[in-house]
Amino acid sequence: MDKDATPQRIVSLLPGATDIVAALGLEDHLVGLSAECDAPASVMDRPRVSLTALDTHGCEPGAIDSMVRDRLARGEPIFQADAEALAGLRPDLILSQSLCDVCAATPSTLTRAAIGGATVLSLDGRDLDGLIGDVRTVADAAGMPQRGEQLAARLEQQRRAARRHPRHRPRVLAVEWPDPLFIGGHWIPHMIEEAGGETLGAPGDHSVVIPWSRVCDYAPEVILMLPCGMGLEEGGNTLPALTRQPGWAELPAVKTGEVYLLDGNRHFSRPGPGPFEGLQILAEILHGSAPAQQPGRWRRARQSELQASSRRAIGPWE
Question: Which residue of 22, 120, 182, 289 has the fewest C-beta atoms within 10 A of its own C-beta?
């Protein structure tokens, strides 16, 4: 612990914040997690203090998107904090986010009774620089600024090691959601640029829906399937949402087999250390002598998965 640091009781309402706390070596201070937190294993026994407002089990990507849009249009939150459980944990520090209403509980969903006397820290990193800034902010709030500087330095080192300046920057399509088609936003364009690729969107921009015609005009040379909150195979199961589109087979990335399935949940969707490992993965794929796969991290889509299809996207529920 840093000199003169005051122990904190920390509750994380965001998987990325939990990743940051763990990377700072502060697992022992975590007294509560969100329903979506899934790592590290050492803290999975902590009480869950947020409840998902939507039941998406068995739903296809398009149906999930419709449910989210309908709820937001009614002014209702996607996530609701368990106020009684939160108050019972007597936290000193609550970690939340203000970046995306769809990803995790935001400060606006927390009642004063639930917060008590705790400090509520809202993470808002929108690109790689912002993610490193969030690391320092969490460490400072937890009374561990030295650890924050050390972790920030390690992440910057990972970033420098993955940075590429190639003569040719391949056109990359990063699919953050397949139906409707959202392109990767926030830090994902920054990751692609740092790894030596060209991408739609700019670092810090929100993820947005684009028409399929724009994909055809862009003619991506590399396609990355990294749906938000999904693991490698789960995200890969949504690939038919693209293969059924007109002109799919004519895209350069499809012709050359440069379509990759990645663990969006672990390495791309959530703020924290994960995207810096994702950055190394992108450098391997775009400009390294990459193997066909790295089990659990990414793999190249099989030829059979790239076949044009008129069937609906399928998921692990079928």
Answer: 289
